[in-house]
Amino acid sequence: MSTGLIFACVGVVLFAMGMAGVLLLEHLLRRILAFNLMGSGAFLVMVGFAQRMDVPDPVPQAMVLTGIVVAVAATALALALARRLHALTGKYTLPPAADD
Amino acid sequence: MTEWLPWLILLPLLWATAAFLLGPGRGARLAIGTTAVQLALAFALAFELGSGSGAPVHRVGGWGAPLGIDLVADGLSALILILTQLVALPLFVYARIYFAAAAPAWFWPLAGFLVAGMNALVLSADLFNLYVTLEIVGLAAVGLVAMGGTAGQLAAALRYLLATLVGSGMYLLGVALVYGSYGTVSIATLTPLVSAGAPLAVWFAGGLLLIGLMVKTALFPFHGWLPPAHGGAPAPVSALVSALVVKASFYLILRLWLGPFAAMAEVAAALPAVLGAAAILWGSWRAVRAQRLKALVAWSTVAQVGYLFLIFPLLGADQLALHAGGMQVLAHGLAKAAMFASVGVLIQATGRDAVAGVAGVAACLPLTLFAFGLAGVTLMGLPPSGGFLAKWLLIEAALLRGRWDMVIVVFAGGLLAATYVFRVLQQAFLATPGGEALRVDRRRLATLEWTAFALAVASILVGLRGMEILRLLGVGA
Predict the structure, then answer these.
(1) Which of B165, B296, B353 should we substitute to test contact with A (largest number of A Cβ atoms within 10 Å)?
(2) What's this model's pTM, rounded to 2 decimal places?
(3) Segment B389-447, tens digit of pLDDT
(4) What domains are there in chain A, each with its CATH number?
(5) What residues of chain B lie within 8 A of the CB of A39, using their CB?
(6) Which of A62, A96, B169, B465 matches a 20 to 30 Å C-alpha distance to B399?
(7) ipTM for this prediction
(8) Which of B155, B159, B176 sits opposite A45 (nearest CB)?
């Protein structure tokens, strides 16, 4: 098994852990961190899976760079919303949805 | 022609940035004026495609794929471009008046980035650029939903954000697996490669792409985030996100389903249809039971998204199901924008967001109520609306393949839609509880009423111009 493929497999595991965290955890900060773990997993797959023959491929690295920018923007937005929610309700958990 | 294709993306980016620099609450006129230009560009593109000159391609910066980014337009993308600008223009006129009293600070920049993201999404031709545009649309929509700033709206926005990030995370992992397997993300290059033979990783990727996009389209059972987000935001925002944003991810599912993943899609075609049928029945039922006006309209979006997914097992050489899907996207987008806009007027007039609160509005706001009714006609699927044409084509496609179960679902959905629309209309014709006439400043509400009415009329008119629209859908498909 090449190093690239090992990276990709670790990436899939990280992605699954992160996704479980976003879906199952309660504390908003933990959920936001879990989202970042999920993103890192996807990036690792992107870079690792593309260089299975141990030849680096620059295109997915450029894509990951773009992906990191998107993830930072999304994290900043999530943190801003969570802080504002904390200021209003005093809690870092989502209140139950009242949808009708 | 291809020289001005990128302007459909650049113009909204420019006015959004200008609106941001002008400061909170500013930039309305600029937005409305430029959106009118974008609408003209979208129509010009549709005419050019209709005249049979082939799909225009623009290579951004002169680089071209695979290193650069290509912008490509075909009939389906032209249709969504027209829908986006056609919904945005009246809604911006509406929003300018709606927010005039207490302007939530950053509506205009966020709306501009949303439109730019939508336009870029339908013109993108590679999976990774599509990911970036999906995120632009998603983040702008979350910002718009959170704009009101109350605890409930923030919680709805956070729920929406987490759902949309899980969806796009799955999409990104799918893109990573596709790139790792084939070394390209261009949809046109992938199509022959995937149909020639797909390793296990690509099957897995196809599943991830599909489920991730279903989460973002709020297909049952992933719809939990939609009603609080769309039902809690200010009326112009609800209209914008309900009419456009869920269509963006649906467009992408359709594009992948018809393109690279066509061979794989046949195996899984039953899944979206079953979920779509469940969405129609559950969403309509919750709309029938809803106590708040905006919750009613938001649950109706969950139901109407279900119709879009019924088409997948019916897609075939005769194009009927594709036409049904395209028509439903267009008709629902216009009707839902009209419905949220008219509900916004009703809430401003009566001061409360409750179905029980609209008693007496028939006498003082007939135009708004008429707009709500016309939008309801489209959602129910009565002739001659666009919704009728969409459901007619869907039933025809289902009957041709002997799918009686689908015909029953479509009819049941129509009946349930009639039930929730007439619930509001019936209440509106009752007298107010005290018996006194409702006092409404009609001069202040006039623009709001007329824009809602224009959107509702447009949702009927697309049914009358059906032939042109269906011909456009066939270009490049």
Answers:
(1) B165
(2) 0.95
(3) 999 999 999 999 999 999 999 999 999 999 999 999 999 998 877 767 777 777 788 99
(4) 3-89 (1.10.287.3510)
(5) 169, 172
(6) B465
(7) 0.96
(8) B176
